[in-house]
Protein backbone atom coordinates (compact mmCIF):
# COMPACT_ATOMS: atom_id res chain seq x y z
CA UNK A 1 0.00 0.00 0.00
CA UNK A 2 1.31 3.43 -0.93
CA UNK A 3 2.37 5.76 1.88
CA UNK A 4 0.51 9.05 1.84
CA UNK A 5 2.58 12.21 2.07
CA UNK A 6 1.54 15.87 2.09
CA UNK A 7 4.06 18.19 0.42
CA UNK A 8 4.20 21.78 -0.72
CA UNK A 9 2.71 22.53 -4.14
CA UNK A 10 4.62 24.93 -6.39
CA UNK A 11 3.78 28.65 -6.21
CA UNK A 12 1.20 29.30 -8.91
CA UNK A 13 1.20 25.65 -10.05
CA UNK A 14 -1.01 23.60 -7.71
CA UNK A 15 -0.41 20.31 -9.55
CA UNK A 16 3.40 20.43 -9.36
CA UNK A 17 5.77 19.45 -6.53
CA UNK A 18 6.92 22.67 -4.89
CA UNK A 19 10.14 24.10 -3.56
CA UNK A 20 10.34 22.73 0.00
CA UNK A 21 13.77 21.13 0.67
CA UNK A 22 12.37 19.20 3.65
CA UNK A 23 9.63 17.68 1.48
CA UNK A 24 12.15 16.78 -1.20
CA UNK A 25 14.34 15.12 1.43
CA UNK A 26 11.47 12.79 2.44
CA UNK A 27 10.45 12.04 -1.16
CA UNK A 28 14.13 11.33 -2.01
CA UNK A 29 14.24 8.87 0.90
CA UNK A 30 11.09 7.12 -0.37
CA UNK A 31 12.58 6.95 -3.88
CA UNK A 32 15.92 5.55 -2.67
CA UNK A 33 14.12 2.93 -0.57
CA UNK A 34 11.71 2.14 -3.43
CA UNK A 35 8.72 2.67 -1.13
CA UNK A 36 5.50 3.34 -3.10
CA UNK A 37 3.95 6.67 -2.13
CA UNK A 38 1.08 8.97 -3.00
CA UNK A 39 1.68 12.72 -3.01
CA UNK A 40 -0.91 15.20 -1.76
CA UNK A 41 0.12 18.62 -3.07
CA UNK A 42 -0.82 21.40 -0.66
CA UNK A 43 -1.14 25.09 -1.55
CA UNK A 44 0.53 26.60 1.53
CA UNK A 45 -0.71 30.12 0.80
CA UNK A 46 -4.32 28.90 0.97
CA UNK A 47 -4.19 25.85 3.21
CA UNK A 48 -7.27 23.65 2.72
CA UNK A 49 -9.33 22.65 5.75
CA UNK A 50 -8.64 18.90 5.33
CA UNK A 51 -4.92 19.63 5.56
CA UNK A 52 -5.21 21.80 8.70
CA UNK A 53 -7.11 18.96 10.34
CA UNK A 54 -4.18 16.58 9.90
CA UNK A 55 -1.45 19.22 10.34
CA UNK A 56 -2.82 21.89 12.72
CA UNK A 57 0.40 23.94 12.46
CA UNK A 58 0.04 23.89 8.68
CA UNK A 59 3.51 22.47 8.16
CA UNK A 60 4.80 20.07 5.52
CA UNK A 61 5.91 17.37 5.06
CA UNK A 62 3.51 15.10 6.94
CA UNK A 63 3.35 11.36 6.29
CA UNK A 64 0.65 8.91 7.30
CA UNK A 65 2.03 5.94 9.26
CA UNK A 66 -0.52 3.41 10.58
CA UNK A 67 -3.43 5.88 10.34
CA UNK A 68 -1.48 8.61 12.15
CA UNK A 69 -0.13 11.72 10.39
CA UNK A 70 3.44 12.44 11.45
CA UNK A 71 5.17 15.81 10.87
CA UNK A 72 8.89 16.80 10.80
CA UNK A 73 11.29 15.47 8.17
CA UNK A 74 13.83 14.30 10.82
CA UNK A 75 11.19 12.17 12.54
CA UNK A 76 9.73 10.91 9.25
CA UNK A 77 13.13 9.84 7.87
CA UNK A 78 13.88 8.03 11.16
CA UNK A 79 10.62 6.10 10.96
CA UNK A 80 11.24 5.22 7.29
CA UNK A 81 14.68 3.84 8.19
CA UNK A 82 13.08 1.71 10.90
CA UNK A 83 10.13 0.45 8.84
CA UNK A 84 12.06 -0.03 5.60
CA UNK A 85 15.62 -0.91 6.63
CA UNK A 86 16.68 -2.02 3.13
CA UNK A 87 18.54 -0.45 1.46
CA UNK A 88 20.04 1.16 4.55
CA UNK A 89 20.48 4.92 4.35
CA UNK A 90 21.83 5.22 7.90
CA UNK A 91 24.59 7.79 8.21
CA UNK A 92 27.40 6.85 10.63
CA UNK A 93 26.92 9.13 13.68
CA UNK A 94 30.29 10.86 13.20
CA UNK A 95 29.14 12.21 9.82
CA UNK A 96 25.52 12.97 10.69
CA UNK A 97 26.05 16.71 11.24
CA UNK A 98 28.37 17.37 8.27
CA UNK A 99 27.03 20.36 6.31
CA UNK A 100 24.22 20.90 8.82
CA UNK A 101 24.99 24.61 9.34
CA UNK A 102 25.09 25.52 5.63
CA UNK A 103 21.36 26.24 5.27
CA UNK A 104 21.34 28.34 8.43
CA UNK A 105 24.15 30.54 7.10
CA UNK A 106 22.75 30.69 3.56
CA UNK A 107 19.47 32.35 4.62
CA UNK A 108 21.00 35.41 6.42
CA UNK A 109 23.35 35.96 3.46
CA UNK A 110 20.50 35.70 0.96
CA UNK A 111 18.46 38.29 2.92
CA UNK A 112 21.41 40.57 3.70
CA UNK A 113 21.71 44.04 2.18
CA UNK A 114 24.94 44.84 4.02
CA UNK A 115 28.15 43.70 2.34
CA UNK A 116 30.05 44.09 5.61
CA UNK A 117 27.84 42.06 7.93
CA UNK A 118 29.99 38.87 7.70
CA UNK A 119 27.04 36.76 6.48
CA UNK A 120 28.90 35.85 3.27
CA UNK A 121 31.99 34.83 5.24
CA UNK A 122 29.90 32.68 7.59
CA UNK A 123 28.50 30.76 4.62
CA UNK A 124 31.93 30.44 2.98
CA UNK A 125 33.37 29.01 6.21
CA UNK A 126 30.70 26.30 6.25
CA UNK A 127 31.21 25.49 2.56
CA UNK A 128 34.99 25.30 3.07
CA UNK A 129 34.46 22.89 5.94
CA UNK A 130 32.29 20.70 3.70
CA UNK A 131 34.94 20.87 0.96
CA UNK A 132 37.65 19.73 3.41
CA UNK A 133 35.47 16.87 4.60
CA UNK A 134 34.68 15.67 1.05
CA UNK A 135 38.34 15.93 0.10
CA UNK A 136 39.17 13.35 2.76
CA UNK A 137 36.04 11.18 2.50
CA UNK A 138 34.02 11.63 -0.70
CA UNK A 139 32.41 11.27 -3.09
CA UNK A 140 29.49 11.27 -0.61
CA UNK A 141 29.56 12.58 2.94
CA UNK A 142 29.94 9.11 4.49
CA UNK A 143 32.22 7.82 1.71
CA UNK A 144 31.29 5.59 -1.21
CA UNK A 145 27.56 5.31 -0.50
CA UNK A 146 24.74 7.83 -0.51
CA UNK A 147 23.16 8.09 2.97
CA UNK A 148 20.50 10.10 4.82
CA UNK A 149 22.83 13.06 5.40
CA UNK A 150 23.25 13.53 1.62
CA UNK A 151 19.49 13.38 1.06
CA UNK A 152 19.02 16.12 3.67
CA UNK A 153 21.80 18.37 2.36
CA UNK A 154 21.32 18.04 -1.40
CA UNK A 155 17.96 19.88 -1.63
CA UNK A 156 19.38 22.70 0.51
CA UNK A 157 22.44 23.08 -1.73
CA UNK A 158 20.10 23.13 -4.73
CA UNK A 159 18.15 26.02 -3.17
CA UNK A 160 21.37 27.81 -2.25
CA UNK A 161 22.77 27.59 -5.78
CA UNK A 162 19.56 28.78 -7.46
CA UNK A 163 18.55 31.50 -4.98
CA UNK A 164 22.00 33.08 -4.54
CA UNK A 165 22.62 32.88 -8.29
CA UNK A 166 19.33 34.62 -9.03
CA UNK A 167 19.02 37.21 -6.26
CA UNK A 168 22.70 37.97 -5.61
CA UNK A 169 24.48 36.83 -8.79
CA UNK A 170 26.65 34.84 -6.38
CA UNK A 171 28.22 31.46 -7.05
CA UNK A 172 30.17 29.03 -4.90
CA UNK A 173 33.89 29.80 -5.42
CA UNK A 174 35.52 27.60 -8.07
CA UNK A 175 38.33 26.57 -5.72
CA UNK A 176 35.84 24.59 -3.61
CA UNK A 177 36.32 21.77 -6.12
CA UNK A 178 35.03 18.99 -3.92
CA UNK A 179 31.78 20.83 -3.17
CA UNK A 180 31.27 21.45 -6.91
CA UNK A 181 31.93 17.79 -7.73
CA UNK A 182 29.59 16.68 -4.96
CA UNK A 183 26.79 18.92 -6.23
CA UNK A 184 27.28 17.70 -9.81
CA UNK A 185 27.11 14.10 -8.65
CA UNK A 186 24.09 14.47 -6.41
CA UNK A 187 22.11 16.81 -8.70
CA UNK A 188 22.40 14.23 -11.50
CA UNK A 189 21.32 11.35 -9.21
CA UNK A 190 18.23 9.66 -10.65
CA UNK A 191 16.03 10.16 -7.57
CA UNK A 192 17.12 13.81 -7.31
CA UNK A 193 16.22 14.57 -10.93
CA UNK A 194 12.85 12.93 -10.37
CA UNK A 195 12.03 14.96 -7.24
CA UNK A 196 13.65 18.37 -7.82
CA UNK A 197 11.43 21.44 -8.13
CA UNK A 198 11.88 23.55 -11.28
CA UNK A 199 14.21 26.54 -10.82
CA UNK A 200 11.43 29.07 -11.34
CA UNK A 201 9.51 27.61 -8.38
CA UNK A 202 12.56 27.83 -6.13
CA UNK A 203 12.97 31.51 -7.12
CA UNK A 204 9.24 32.17 -6.63
CA UNK A 205 9.40 30.50 -3.21
CA UNK A 206 12.29 32.67 -1.97
CA UNK A 207 11.18 35.98 -3.56
CA UNK A 208 8.81 37.08 -0.72
CA UNK A 209 11.49 36.32 1.89
CA UNK A 210 14.19 38.20 0.00
CA UNK A 211 11.97 41.18 -0.71
CA UNK A 212 10.47 41.31 2.81
Structure report:
The protein has 212 residues and is of the alpha+beta class. It has 9 helices and 5 strands, in the order E-E-H-E-H-E-E-H-H-H-H-H-H-H. Helix 4 packs antiparallel against helix 5 and helix 4 runs parallel beside helix 6 (148-168). The termini are far apart. The mean pLDDT is 96.
Map the helices and strands.
Elements: E1 3-10, E2 13-17, H1 21-32, E3 37-42, H2 49-54, E4 62-65, E5 68-71, H3 73-83, H4 102-111, H5 119-136, H6 148-168, H7 177-187, H8 190-195, H9 199-210
Parallel strand pairs: 1-3
Antiparallel strand pairs: 1-2, 1-4, 4-5
Along the chain, the helix and strand elements come as EEHEHEEHHHHHHH
State Rg: 17 Å
- The proportion of residues forming helix, as a percent range, comes to 40-55%
Please give the count of helices. 9
Shape: globular
What share of residues are in beta strands? 5-15%
What is the average per-residue confidence, as pLDDT, rounded to a whole number?
96
Low-confidence stretches: none
Q: Tell how many strands the DSSP assignment holds.
A: 5
The first-to-last residue Cα distance is 43 Å
Most strands sheet: 5 strands, mixed
Query: What structural category do the secondary elements indicate?
Result: alpha+beta
Amino acid sequence: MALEICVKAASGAPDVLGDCPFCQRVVLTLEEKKVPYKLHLVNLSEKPQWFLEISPEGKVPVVKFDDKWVPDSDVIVGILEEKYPEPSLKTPPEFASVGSKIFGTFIPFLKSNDANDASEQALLNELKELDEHLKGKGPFIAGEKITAVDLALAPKLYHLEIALGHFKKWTIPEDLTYVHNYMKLIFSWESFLKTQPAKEYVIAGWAPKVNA
